[in-house]
Design goal:
The complex is a heterodimer.
Chain A lengths: L8 H5 L5 H13 L1 H18 L8 H57 L4 H35 L1
Helix pairs in contact in A: 2-3, 4-5
Chain B lengths: L20 H15 L3 H23 L2 H17 L10 H20 L29 H13 L3 H12 L4 H8 L3 H22 L2 H4 L1
Helix pairs in contact in B: 1-2, 2-3, 2-4, 2-6, 3-4, 5-8, 6-8, 7-8
The chains are: A mainly alpha, B mainly alpha.
């Protein structure tokens, strides 16, 4: 009779031996009553594990889960819409200021020619207004990006 | 045998129901619906997998309240991240992975000591009376209660591998993928968990019952 296989019996009960090992164990069990008896006990332990009581989710838990998911989905949809709207406003604002700058250039040229007087201060104030608008839009972009990142991390 | 794309030859325990191809198709369809925002897809997925997820979480966490919390969080996360699910693979292992990550986060946050493994199990021995059949003398219900008590007393990682193998019927390869460990490590964990469980049973109940 070959050496005992007591150290393989637990995995044999779990059907976790590779085929070669399993064949060696099976062959030994046919010859060794002691190991066969132990194998039977490990098998019963495995059967006991398969028959452990299975918990079932309560209706309340399922209802809470469903409600939470619905709420989160509604929030996600709202966030998606808000992000789209904010993105559109940012692009619209940048475009508008760009177009306004071009129009001002043309207008200033026309006025300067017609009234023959410098419009420097007006241009400076309008330039400052444009820069402020662009900085605000850039800040909104950064905040939007950070919020999107945070939402993705928490989801 | 459970679907195993890696060619692993190890089969699932024979008593575990086989995963039907129809179930995989239903999961794929429901996941596709959920991806489009249709919550009927979620209903289908929950209906088929809620019991197994909760059972796995109860085994892993060893606490009913915590398992219920993580159960809820898992489904919320599944609904939020369904786009990350690879529909060419079975849904259940992905679901269990999401639940496992959330569950271990919970354990680390609230019970970091519970993740420690117990002492090494004693080596298997051939004691006297090993050939007896003592189970006939013990009522099945009492035996099961002792088994549940011994199981609950194990460390989370031990409970996890036993549950994945015997209750969920995952192959060793699938278990390795789920817990993120090499296959030999999972095999060793499974062996140690069974040995620890048996040692606990021997401590708790009549010795000849499990010897």
């Amino acid at each position: 009779m070959s050496g005992h296989v007591t150290d393989r019996l637990a995995l044999a009960a779990a059907e976790a031996l590779d085929p070669g090992e399993q064949r060696r164990v099976d062959a030994h069990l046919r010859e060794c009553p002691d190991c066969a008896a132990q194998a039977e006990q490990w098998r019963r332990l495995g059967d006991g594990l398969r028959d452990l009581p299975t918990p079932v989710p309560s209706p309340g838990l399922l209802a809470r889960t469903r409600a939470t998911i619905e709420r989160r989905q509604a929030e996600r949809e709202e966030q998606t819409w808000n992000r789209a709207a904010l993105g559109f406003l940012i692009v619209f604002g940048w475009t508008l200021t760009g177009v306004a700058w071009l129009l001002l250039e043309l207008l200033v040229g026309e006025l300067a020619l017609r009234f023959e007087r410098p419009l420097g201060p007006t241009i400076i104030w309008f330039g400052a207004y444009l820069v402020a608008g662009w900085v605000a839009a850039a800040a909104a972009t950064v905040l939007l990006g950070r919020r999107t990142h945070e939402e993705g991390r928490l989801a | 045998m459970l679907p195993d794309t890696t060619g692993c030859v190890l089969s699932a325990p024979s008593s575990v129901p086989q995963v039907a191809e129809a179930t995989l198709d239903l999961d794929r369809d429901d996941a596709a619906r959920l991806r489009k925002g249709d919550l009927t897809g979620l209903d289908g997925l929950m209906g088929r997998h809620q019991d197994r997820l909760l059972r796995y979480l109860r085994r892993l966490l060893g606490d009913e309240t915590m398992a219920d919390d993580v159960f809820q969080q898992t489904w919320v996360r599944v609904a939020g991240r369904i786009r990350r699910y690879d529909a060419t693979r079975p849904f259940l292992p992905w679901l269990l992975t999401v639940g496992r990550n959330l569950g271990l986060d919970h354990l680390r946050r609230y019970r970091p000591e519970s993740l420690d493994e117990g002492p090494e199990p004693p080596a298997p021995t051939q004691g006297p009376g090993a050939t007896e059949d003592p189970l006939a003398r013990v009522a099945a219900r009492e035996r099961r209660e002792r088994l549940v008590a011994a199981f609950d007393g194990l460390a989370p990682h031990d409970r996890e591998v036993l549950s994945l193998r015997f209750e969920e019927g995952l192959s060793l390869k699938e278990m390795a993928a789920l817990v993120g460990a090499p296959l030999p490590t999972v095999k060793a964990r499974l062996y140690r968990a069974m040995a620890r469980l048996r040692a606990r049973l021997l401590e708790q109940g009549p010795r000849d019952e499990w010897q």
